[in-house]
Amino acid sequence: MDIRGGASFVKVSNEFGITYSDLELLADLFYLPFSYGPAGLRILELGHWLRDNAFSAPGSATTLTREVCFSKL
User: Domain range holding 26?
Assistant: First the structure.
């Protein structure tokens, strides 16, 4: 995987299985001081929702939909 950054050329190894979407999420979580990017904010909101509703009745359609959405991120 090659990434061009500014005037320099950097060769990046993918031995850890890191994808561009993983890097994008990492960047979104550190978007600005005390602020998150759109993908980072979405995963944090889903995480909070899952934590708050962890003791809800299992098998709820809303719960399963959110769990699937969270696991895809």
Answer: 2-72
Question: 39 with 28: CB under 8 angstroms?
Answer: yes
DSSP 57: P
User: Where are any strands of DSSP class E within 1-73?
Assistant: 2-5, 8-11
CA atoms within 13 A on the CB side of 36: 11
Number of domains present in the structure of the chain: 1
Q: What sign does the CA torsion over 6, 16, 20, 38 have?
A: negative
Overall pTM surpassing 0.85 (yes/no): no
Mean pLDDT of the chain: 74
